[in-house]
Amino acid sequence: MRHPPIAKIDPRPHPAAVDPRAGRAGFWKRQARTWHWISGAICLLGMLGFAVTGITLNHAADIPAEPVVTERQAQLPEPLLAELAAGPEKGRSDALPPAIAAFVEEALGIGLSGRPAEWSPDEVYVGLPRPGGDAWLSIERESGAVLYERTTRGAIAYLNDLHKGRHTGKAWSWFLDIFSAACIVFCLTGLWLLQIHAGKRPSTWPLAVAGLALPVLLLVFFVHA
Fold this sequence. Notes:
transmembrane; membrane; six-stranded antiparallel sheet; alpha+beta
């Protein structure tokens, strides 16, 4: 009858048992790797998108874009003209009167929620800026004629405005803040990992210093105020 082989026991003690600092160092090294890959996974597609739009922004003048202008018109019904006339003669309000806003939204298929209105004796103007273009709405106070105009400048302009956070609203602004925080974590944990492995990779710090020195030299010698 054959007996199963006896497992060999390594007589050497675990490094952490000999030196507690080795155990702590291993713990923090694992933490650095964990936070680095988590933040990298969160930032991956976003960083790719921002890198691409960084190139398109840098060459925005070289990328042709033909603006496309769209106009829509409507006419306020008689009952709403009185409500329009009752508005302030001049100034700014947080929004159009609800009944007028509801009619315009249905007639033109646009959203006016949260859009302030600018009042003058002749018209009411609502700016509707958007990424990659612009839009506005004008209502003549005497006749009730409604004119909506939208300008689009193409997909590249749209992506460039997303990069800059231009006219993108609060939700995108929050995303940019969270994404930037994740990028900071990714970079700092990457620097931490560089420090951990620098002893085995002599070129680590020369390359890191070169990555800092290159943009500084370009700013000092080639970028003029």
